[in-house]
Amino acid sequence: MIKDFLRYMAYEKRLSQHTIISYENDLNKFSLYLQENAIETPVHLVSPNELRQWIIYLSEEEMAITSINRKIACLKSFFKFCLKRGTIEKDPTEKLKTLKKPKRVPKFIPEDQLNHFLDQLSHLPEDFQGLRDRLILELLYGTGIRRAELIELKSEQIDKKNYTVRVRGKGNKIRLIPLNSTLRELIPRYEEQKLIEFSGNTCEFLIVTNSGKQSYPTFIYKKVKEYLEIFKTIDQKSPHILRHTFATHLLNRGADLNAIKDLLGHSSLSATQVYTHNSIGKLKDVFNQAHPKAEEDIHK
Question: Is the model's pTM score more than 0.90?
């Protein structure tokens, strides 16, 4: 059945040779597991329990979750094929679920280091490029917007009277984000230099390249990485770390989690809750300062 399945995936489904080889390796490893555990049932006739036992075995062997999930996907495709061919009456993978990946705790820049960094940006040249580079960094940290949202941001989306920016996020959802005092002062200066630099023929997008065209992902990434090289202890030097830093700093200063969710444009609170892990140190400080029993322990 395995050979028939691989031929079907290669010639009917036209999957890549790399995928076919991966499927073959996964199914052969499962067959070997059955043999080593004295399970004489043919691969295509195994029970749901035997499948679950293999997944447990792989987990105990500390195989990466992504690799285990790939094997589960392979098994689901294989038994779907068997069911279609009529060699089995019921799919044993019907209730077999992929494993949940542990959420990675977002990296962020400590507040004192970030403030020092932003202070240094004020010494950049007051020409178009200097103000543009500073605005990229100040916007990413000051509003928490995504790189794609920054690229698509137009000057008309900035309300200079109410000091807000209208951001179009995922799913075309619109959200309003307040502008801090630095951005209120920096944006008009940048736009003035932008007009001078390109003789009034400016692009509708706020952030533009040296040639006056709309910025693009690699351009923004390289600009941010160039300036964040100052942080030697931080591996991730992408625009997204400034978004993580924005959220973490708000939470550390007591902002409501639902408010942070709305500012970030998250569709659910669960996506925002990852930042609570970064704030456990802050929570401990608050506990030590405010809880009566903690105070007793401190003075012992």
Answer: no
